[in-house]
## 1
Amino acid sequence: MNGGYYRMCYSPDGSMTGNEFLNAIVPVDIRVIGVASACLGDGCLADERWDCYVSYFGEDISNCLVDFRAFGGGREGFFVESASSSKSAWTAAWGRDTFLFGELIPASRKRCSDVVTAEYIAPEMAIFDDFDWAPPTGMGFITDAFTAMEMPRLRRTAATDSFTLSMCYCPSYDGPVDPTNDPCDHASEFIQPIGVLYYWLLRVCHLFLQQ
Ligand SMILES: [Ca+2]
């Protein structure tokens, strides 16, 4: 599910190896709109990590980019094959990791939208200052080879702890759920998982000022 160009190979005996006369490249190019990273495993893109941080009393300073730009700042190893409307958004915040009898119980992953299971993202909003999506209709921020997504500024009174979001991409996709014919204007259309965004917050307290 990585974006890019692909070719189709055909092997009549199903072996994909051996006699070259039994294998052939079908003369079509397949263009997949979406994000790709350097990882090659099945589903590994969903596990790519994005790290941002929150600084004490600097919560409203945005310094968090999801960046696939081909020139001038794009994250190394990442690539996007974008089309007319290609946007990024995120899920609800994950729950907290917990411990049970000393064993770490990690928070369960929030999944990107899936029209088959009819589960759709509900982006975390409360922890961010009020913002408008860009463009202001629908959902998501344009994220392509020319434009990075800058995460909204955090709400100082809400960003009091570390948190985690799943990042989801809409590869110029118009799904069957919403009534419009426009791509990427509805939560159900953010179908490509592109990693996990960790917001880190570290507080250091003076030992003698805690009394
Ligand atoms: Ca739509």
Note: DSSP finds no helices and 13 strands in the chain.
## 2
Amino acid sequence: MDNLKEKVAYLQGLAQGVQLGDSKEARVLSEVINTLQVMAEAIDNLQLNQAEVEEYLVSMDEDLADLETDVYDDEDDDADAEFLEMTCPNCSEELYFDQLLLDDDEVTELVCPSCGQVIYEDDDWYEEEEGISPPETEEND
Ligand SMILES: [Zn+2]
């Protein structure tokens, strides 16, 4: 806030220039200007500190993003953590299937454990069922 300090400096120069004298009002005015100078210094220090804190937060946020990337990439490697959520088109039961089953070429169908309806057959099963999206898989580097 250089602008604020400049304004206070200008006020000080102005007060000296008009020669306020020794009246009570002049002393009060002089003290007000001195107080303004102290406040301008304090605000300037606060803003410097805040800029440092913001810079620190930004670097911490970047570190956290890196950490999250590492952690979630590790989870992707762990196939047990991958589940496909879907709703049975026959009985509307909420179902969770291990992603491994769907990626496995030898598995050609999945059966709803609630009603026994076959809800997954071959690879093009999701194109025939409305409202069911194909399983999303993220490519790991
Ligand atoms: Zn069902």
Note: The pocket of zinc ion is lined by residues 88, 90-91, 93, 112, 114-115, 117 (CB under 6 Å).
